[in-house]
Write a structure and sequence with these properties.
There is one protein chain. With 587 residues, this protein is an alpha+beta fold. The chain has three domains: 92 residues, Nucleic acid-binding proteins (OB fold (Dihydrolipoamide Acetyltransferase, E2P), Beta Barrel); 227 residues, Bira Bifunctional Protein, Domain 2 (BirA Bifunctional Protein, domain 2), CATH 3.30.930.10; 125 residues, Gyrase A, domain 2. The protein is built from 16 helices and 23 strands. Strands 6-9-10-23-22-21-18-11 form an eight-stranded mixed β-sheet, with helices on both faces. β7 and β8 form a beta hairpin. α4 crosses α6 and α13 packs antiparallel against α14. It is globular, with a radius of gyration of 30 Å. It binds one RNA strand of 77 nucleotides through β1, β2, β3 and α2.
RNA sequence: GGUCUGGUAGCUCAGUUGGUUAGAGUGCAUGCCUGUCACGCAUGAAGUCGCGGGUUCGAGUCCCGUCCGGACCGCCA
């Protein structure tokens, strides 16, 4: 028997018991006559004590042990002379009588401690060592708890977890597919699923009226801190439901997770239309932990800027202001920094106008053009009070909204309004069905090609398809899109009309999705669903920006696994067997 | 595809205007130390300054190229 207890459970109640522990040597303190060793496992740390007076042989042996040696010790639990309140086992120590080195270790490349000295890249390369650290382990424990509670909630509501295939068919819409060559079908390829979308719809046709799956999805696109080439979704689908049913069911899921995992009660989720979100936050996933909504000094029917000869505003399609409450103390230097920030190509504003509101009046960077009365109108329109700062951007509507959205988030961060332990969850609804793609000069589906239009907007599909809204919805928490879904089309005729809007010929639609349209001919029930980004949800609950912290073996920025060094070349024999050859792109 | 940013000891980083032998903390090794728990003290080893080229009397430092990270834009239905 390797152990009778774990390293996290012995207390004063176990005093005088003879026990056996196994674990890793976290750190040793050699005091000459005595040596202390911290023995670590998943559950905690227990101090081992060796004394030169009572057992010189063992103590001498203990002094030679290095970090991360795997040890098995037997000894007697004893109350400590000097206790350590920082750890749960801090009242006791083990007077070791037998010591066995189960395995030695070379010195690890970084220290395996709460505050490691290792950088990200190194820790990724030695991920199995990083996993020994408390912080990383806790994140994965959180993920486990989230998964268990998701299953608990959905199971109680009669959802069935059904697995769907991983080797499927490539589809042209959406993200790039990862493809897998088929040896048995020379020249043909499987694709890894971007999501189990069509399969879950087929499960609905198959009568599984409540399905879910915690499932890997694959998208071959460029990565970010919150994106991995393979990631996990909580994928769900329901029959005989309307949008309202889905919103209620999954609002329940999120509330359940907050309650059981974090013991937080979150209020009923508010709802916002896509149009409203874009207009007042410039963003389809607004962070509503703080207000700071857009006010239109020009555009949206208002014009508080005209006739003063300020060309920038006069030429602009819209002029948008936000009120940064209490930020009138911003110095000229800070404001210049903000200006530089919005002018970066990623933000793309051409400049930033500001106005400080104070007891002495309003001072703006456009005093030359606008008199006190006009500035006062601006302040009134934005409900700015003494001590507040107006930040104003002007230009074309879409660009200005987008830039202002980024500025709003920056100001929210700078003013401490985006605390990671505060949660504001809401729904964004009524997304447009289609999005015009300038590059390809055609519409593509904003959500996906199976999303049903709102019934009252179906008539728009023929004439003004861009205006048609979909029965699609996103759940947003703290400005992060954690989930999204839609009511699906269950009518073969409407589905083929949508395919044709998306530029598919009949033949292409048949080739790509014939199986689905066929299935719809056999009595497809009305259905809809949603999918949550499980990794993002975990990182949100854990208070971290990056989902890599919540994935046991993540990939780096360029999609490499630096630990196993993948992807990698394969042998010419493998290539031949698969009937494939590579033609490298020249730069 | 683009913008920004970084690469110096095992690790985390400093390194001024281009100027003598490239430093610190930590880790590691050795020694001392009987109540430590980030133990303490002392000594020591440890460097292809990412790589290649250029400018210069002289390059960690400046220039060009390249490789490898990171953040972001595009992209991600």
């Amino acid at each position: 028997m390797y152990r009778t207890h774990t390293c996290g459970e012995l207390t004063i109640g176990n005093a005088n018991q003879t026990i056996t522990l196994s674990g890793w040597l976290q750190r040793s303190r050699d005091l000459g006559g005595m040596t202390f060793i911290d023995l670590r496992d998943r559950y905690g740390i227990t101090q081992l004590a060796f004394n030169m007076e009572t057992n010189a042989t063992l103590c001498t042996e203990a002094r030679k042990l290095g970090r991360e040696y795997v040890l098995q010790v037997t000894g007697v639990v004893k109350e400590r002379e000097s206790k350590n309140a920082k750890i749960t086992t801090g009242d006791v120590e083990i007077i070791v009588t037998e010591l066995k080195v189960l395995n030695a270790s070379i010195t690890p490349p970084f220290t395996i401690e709460e505050n490691t000295d290792g950088g990200d890249e190194l820790r990724m390369k030695y991920r199995y060592l990083d996993l020994r650290r408390n912080a990383v382990r806790k994140n994965l424990e959180l993920r486990h708890r989230m998964a268990i509670e998701t299953r608990n909630y959905l199971d109680k509501l009669q959802f069935l977890e059904v697995e769907t295939p991983v080797l499927i068919k490539s589809t042209p819409e959406g993200a790039r597919d990862f493809v897998v060559p088929s040896r048995m079908n020379e020249g043909e390829f499987y694709a890894l699923p971007q999501s189990p979308q069509t399969f879950k719809q087929l499960l609905m046709v198959g009568g599984f009226d409540r399905y879910y799956q915690i499932v890997k999805c694959f998208r071959d696109e460029d990565l970010r801190a919150d994106r991995q080439p393979e990631f996990t979704q909580i994928d769900c689908e329901m029959c005989f439901v309307e949008q309202e049913d889905i919103l209620n069911t999954f609002e329940g899921l999120v509330k359940h997770l907050f309650k059981t995992v974090k013991n937080v009660d979150i209020p009923t989720l508010t709802r916002m239309t896509f149009a409203h979100a874009m207009k007042y936050y410039g963003n389809d996933k607004p962070d509503i932990r703080f207000d700071m909504q857009f006010k239109y000094l020009k555009g949206d029917g208002a014009d508080l800027t005209a006739g003063k000869g300020f060309k920038v505003f006069d030429d602009a399609e819209c002029v948008i202001a936000i009120n940064a409450i209490g930020a009138a103390t911003y110095t000229r230097k800070q404001l210049d920094e903000l200006t530089d920030w919005v002018k970066r190509p990623q933000i793309g504003a051409s400049g930033l106008i500001y106005a400080r509101v104070s007891a002495d009046g309003i001072k703006s960077s456009v005093d030359k053009f606008y008199d006190v009365d006009t500035l006062q109108h601006w302040a009134t329109a934005t409900t700015a009070k003494d001590g507040d700062l107006l930040l104003i951007l002007a230009g074309s509507t879409n660009k200005t909204r987008k830039a202002m959205s980024e500025l709003r988030l920056l100001m929210g961060t700078q003013l401490g309004l985006r605390k990671s332990d505060t949660f504001a969850a809401h729904w964004v609804v009524d997304f447009p069905m289609l999005e015009w793609d300038e590059e390809t000069k055609r519409y593509h589906a904003m959500h996906h090609p199976f999303t049903s239009p709102k019934p009252e907007d179906i008539h728009l599909l023929n004439e003004r398809a861009g205006e048609a809204r979909a029965n699609a919805y996103d759940m947003v928490i703290n400005g992060v899109e954690v989930g999204g879904g839609s009511i699906r089309i269950h009518d073969a005729a409407l589905q083929s009309q949508v395919f044709s809007l998306l530029g598919f010929t009949k033949e292409q639609a048949e080739y790509q999705f014939g199986f689905l349209m066929n299935a719809f001919k056999y009595g497809a029930p009305p259905h809809g669903g949603i999918a949550f980004g499980f990794d993002r949800l975990c990182s949100l609950f854990g208070g971290s920006e990056t989902i890599r912290d919540y994935i046991a073996f993540p990939k780096n920025n360029s999609g490499r696994d630096v630990m196993i060094d993948a992807p990698s070349l394969i042998s010419p024999e493998q290539m031949k067997e698969l009937a494939i050859a590579t033609v490298l792109n020249t730069k």
